Amino acid sequence: NAGVMQNPRHLVRRRGQEARLRCSPMKGHSHVYWYRQLPEEGLKFMVYLQKENIIDESGMPKERFSAEFPKEGPSILRIQQVVRGDSAAYFCASSRQEGNQPQHFGDGTRLSIL
Amino acid sequence: DQQVKQNSPSLSVQEGRISILNCDYTNSMFDYFLWYKKYPAEGPTFLISISSIKDKNEDGRFTVFLNKSAKHLSLHIVPSQPGDSAVYFCAASDVGSSNTGKLIFGQGTTLQVKP
To answer: Is B35 an 8 Å CB contact of chain A?
Structure first.
């Protein structure tokens, strides 16, 4: 499967725990985007990364959330000290380059906070 | 501040007829527009896109129309098929000035195609 791979597909955490969401972009894609979808809403941009660089994190909450895209390995979205309001579907997308290029999405990680 | 709006939460059409999904935007800096289809428990699937230098783009049964003066775009599906039943999202990007390519999504329209 050459598509965007996200894991885990489902993640359950208790309040105060940490959540780590992983994303492997499509082969040949070096641009990674993270989006969050709350129930009954559209997708909201969180962060845009290229290898080893955060390019735009204007959609990221100021606290508890961080993202990285290391030289080797998948991109990681990390949520520390999770709260009930973090329950959502988190989608990763990748593109070959920025600009007029469609982003291709993974199937998401559904995060549930108990 | 909802910069991309899909005012119809749902649409129902008969198989074989045309489906028209609409999208309005407020930011005149948007210069790249996309439509995605989404099934439950899956990620959005890219359907078709259009650059602001065009007013129409066609790919098989899917055609996107862009009216920049009205800040409006639409997706036409003809003929509609039951497998087209899904949630459709309109998305926009300000590529020219922002250089990040981040997408701003509408709330989605649920399309049901009846056999």
So the answer is: no
